[in-house]
Model the fold of this input.
Amino acid sequence: MIPSKYLVLNQILKASNNNLYISGQEIAQSLGLSRSAVNKAVSAIRSEGYDIDAINRKGYLITSDPNLINPGELLGILPAKRLESVAILDTVNSTNVKLHELAEEGALSGQIVIASCQTAGRGRAGSNFDSPDNKSIYASYLIRPDFTLDPKTITPKVAQIVAKSINEYLNTSAISYTDAGDLFLDDKKICGILTEMLSEAGSGYVRYIMIGIGIRPINSIKRASLIASIIQSLDKTFLLESE
Done:
């Protein structure tokens, strides 16, 4: 269930994106909340770094935001049902490690873990992946392949998806990628992809695959919009293929 503060945030964001104020009464009626609950939610939203202008008899307008990834930001792009399998954390040792834990608990294909900071991020061949909280995107996506899937094709597919999403957002074609999962902008690496697979000994049966994505800060990109676009493309590529 999405916390009420993020439902309120989503209402204010939708209005603010059109440069419109929305009243507390309108929010309360739309969400079935009390005015007191709306006021409490607005205070909580402000505490997360959102600047909200409030005018009596007019309502609320977000004048600046901290570029966060949270359910309120994603709800404007992804359906509420989809967000049930999106885990958003402030700090985690590794999004792939957390996703592995969820997979062992029975998480289904499409489960996602997103974090603002990794304390033990991992790269390919056991290397460390520096993961500070500096407006980067760290995310891991779960696939339980019940269809023919060549693991060697996954990383190049994901690299292509992420590059396409960034290029479309920036309205450019400047993002290049390698089949190994490295993305570059002006010869500077901006993204790394780590694909890990868990299979059964003996049979070689693939139980699940975890795709880790780390994207460095890119000027002017709203993180929630970018990761939502990537999620939509990953779903189309990997979930639809399994149906």
